[in-house]
Structure prediction request, 153 residues.
Amino acid sequence: MGRLLLVSLPATGAVIYRCKHCDTPLAYGTDIISKMFRCKNGKAYLFGKMVNVNVGEKDDRMMTTGMHTVCDIFCVACGSILGWKYLAAVEKAQRYKEGKFILDRGVVVAASPGGGAGAGAAHGMWPDHQQQTSGDDDGDDQDSDEESSDHQD
Ligand SMILES: [Zn+2]
Prediction:
């Protein structure tokens, strides 16, 4: 391990997600692709981009949506586990997640830029795979990935 070089996220008007433990900035709210994921601790978000994370060992895991090659991601500053990164998906329909990050909602805090009117600029950046517009807060997990140990295939 060398010197700790943190990437800063300049204020853009977007919500910034920070590590709950050490306040390191990790991602912009505008980089959220889906909020319908789950991890074993509860809600999780799929991000297209994250900064200040270290990746762990590559691992093949069976998720509710099929087999994926992933690696865990950790906060570079305090080492807390934050979620995982998708390296590869077996199912074609799941490949949009490759190179993307799952962030456990329970380990981050959302810092809103002071009541600004959010950035609408990110609209249309990603293919629309979210059929549901409601149910954001009720843990609906239709398109979710959850680690499961009982692989039946
Ligand atoms: Zn941290």
